[in-house]
């Protein structure tokens, strides 16, 4: 039985990858951080009682800032594959916490690679690094492929640039099977609530049900290549099954704006939106109601405004990936379109919003987390 160790197992990708590997028959180990409240919502459904013999899913307390702890976990688990998905993954937050972001997103990767080397696992343990399209930042070529030069635009991207190169360096210097997936944006109903897609689907579902008044957004002209996390974790695994380690772009090859994503989400809720103004003044108003999912709204209501607080000190305006190499060498093609994914996200958030609206109607306190960052 193969053993995998996943950092970031409590995150979006970690949870899908853990499910995927368990289905493939792996024993799956995950590193989770100590938190003052439960932080395992995304993996609770695959949790196995460690007291039961033969459990194939195991969690270890750890942190990417703690080298001795990472070394001990790797020594104990003796993994065939390590997936380094753990990160302070929010670009806007990295401007507020640049040093911490560097410690986790850059040094964390080095700590894992050094632990593998220190333990003499260079020839045993394969290593996947979650690299990012943010490396391209101020883009030098469109679409972006494996050979496109990098120009990172945030402390997050600069930290991830270090990790990209240290993975390449350990491959070249020590013959390790280490590779980078240059992942373009990928989303799902499990996406963190402060990334733009989830902020939109959750926010609009809440507004439609009368739980919030308005969505406050940053740069809605930003263009992204959005895929589904399920497709991307499958590719992460495929990359570690080759004879030779290589880096791959993982993307859909289709590009849309944040404004498009807002319109699609609204349409899923049975609302047609009209955008008025531009730049910092733009608003989105309800132009027509075509379905019954938005009882709290009427034509003319403003559901989105721009708040310059969400503009970033340096923005990545446009990203579009070319994953032909992944298609040719690995036979990988994404199964989900961005629109399908958006529909799935809206439908998940609508179920939650309806439940909360029902509680509110009965005068019960809402279990709604208010998160202003991002
Ligand atoms: P999430 O933000 O959903 O998950 C991040 C994970 O990292 C969480 O499990 C988090 O734990 C954990 N983590 C954060 N800080 C530490 C730390 N100091 N030590 C150990 N673990 C830590 O990210 P995604 O699942 O979306 O992304 C997975 C990886 O892929 C990340 O590295 C991200 O940067 C990268 N990536 C993601 C893309 C995307 O579009 N989703 C695109 C390109 C790259 P906790 O739950 O306790 O916070
Ligand atoms: P990104 O994702 O920065 O690309 O990083 P995010 O969803 O945060 O932003 C995408 C684009 O939308 C614009 N935007 C807003 N973003 C947020 N979060 N909130 C807003 O209100 C808002 N309004 C407009 C942003 O400016 C940006 O242009 C994600 C993360 O998952 C990284 O970890 C990963 O490496 C990259 O994708 C690829």
Automatic annotation (TrEMBL):
<keyword id="KW-0456">Lyase</keyword>
<dbReference type="InterPro" id="IPR006368">
    <property type="entry name" value="GDP_Man_deHydtase"/>
</dbReference>
<comment type="similarity">
    <text>Belongs to the NAD(P)-dependent epimerase/dehydratase family. GDP-mannose 4,6-dehydratase subfamily.</text>
</comment>
<dbReference type="InterPro" id="IPR036291">
    <property type="entry name" value="NAD(P)-bd_dom_sf"/>
</dbReference>
<dbReference type="InterPro" id="IPR016040">
    <property type="entry name" value="NAD(P)-bd_dom"/>
</dbReference>
<dbReference type="GO" id="GO:0008446">
    <property type="term" value="F:GDP-mannose 4,6-dehydratase activity"/>
</dbReference>
<dbReference type="GO" id="GO:0042351">
    <property type="term" value="P:'de novo' GDP-L-fucose biosynthetic process"/>
</dbReference>
<dbReference type="Pfam" id="PF16363">
    <property type="entry name" value="GDP_Man_Dehyd"/>
</dbReference>
<keyword id="KW-0521">NADP</keyword>
<protein>
    <recommendedName>
        <fullName>GDP-mannose 4,6-dehydratase</fullName>
        <ecNumber>4.2.1.47</ecNumber>
    </recommendedName>
</protein>
<comment type="function">
    <text>Catalyzes the conversion of GDP-D-mannose to GDP-4-dehydro-6-deoxy-D-mannose.</text>
</comment>
<dbReference type="GO" id="GO:0070401">
    <property type="term" value="F:NADP+ binding"/>
</dbReference>
<keyword id="KW-0536">Nodulation</keyword>
<feature type="domain" description="NAD(P)-binding">
    <location>
        <begin position="5"/>
        <end position="345"/>
    </location>
</feature>
């Amino acid at each position: 039985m193969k053993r995998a160790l996943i950092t970031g197992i409590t995150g979006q990708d970690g949870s899908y990858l853990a499910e995927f590997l368990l289905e493939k028959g792996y024993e799956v180990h995950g590193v989770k951080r100590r938190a003052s409240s439960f932080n395992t919502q995304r993996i609770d459904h695959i949790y196995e009682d460690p007291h039961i013999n033969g459990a194939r899913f195991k969690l270890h307390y750890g942190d990417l800032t703690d080298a001795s702890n990472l070394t001990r976990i790797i020594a104990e688990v003796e993994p065939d594959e390590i997936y380094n998905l753990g990160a302070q993954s929010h670009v806007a937050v990295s401007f507020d916490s640049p040093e911490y972001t560097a410690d986790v997103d850059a040094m964390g990767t080095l700590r894992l690679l050094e632990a593998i080397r220190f333990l003499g696992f260079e020839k045993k343990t394969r290593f996947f690094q979650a690299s990012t399209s943010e490396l391209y930042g101020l883009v030098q070529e469109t679409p972006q492929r494996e050979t496109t030069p990098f120009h990172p635009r945030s402390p997050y991207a600069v930290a991830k640039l270090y990790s990209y190169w240290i993975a390449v360096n350990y491959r070249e210097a020590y013959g390790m099977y280490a590779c980078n997936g240059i992942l373009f944006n990928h989303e799902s109903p499990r996406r963190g609530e402060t990334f733009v897609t989830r902020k939109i689907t959750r926010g609009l579902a809440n507004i439609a049900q009368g739980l919030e008044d308005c969505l406050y957004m940053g740069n809605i002209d930003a263009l992204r290549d959005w895929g589904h996390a399920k497709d991307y974790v499958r590719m992460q695994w495929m990359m570690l099954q080759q004879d030779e380690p290589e880096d791959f772009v993982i993307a859909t090859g289709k590009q849309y704006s944040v404004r498009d994503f807002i319109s699609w989400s609204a349409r899923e809720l049975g609302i047609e939106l009209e955008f008025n103004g531009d730049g910092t003044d733009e608003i989105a108003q309800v132009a027509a109601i075509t379905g019954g999912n938005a009882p709290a709204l009427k034509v003319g209501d403003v559901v989105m405004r721009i708040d310059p607080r969400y503009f970033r000190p340096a923005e990545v305006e446009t990203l579009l990936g070319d994953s032909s190499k992944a298609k040719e060498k690995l036979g990988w093609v994404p199964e989900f379109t961005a629109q399908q994914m958006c529909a799935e996200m809206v439908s998940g958030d609508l179920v939650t919003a309806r439940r909360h609206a029902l509680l509110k109607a009965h005068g019960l306190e809402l279990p709604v987390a208010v998160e202003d960052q991002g």
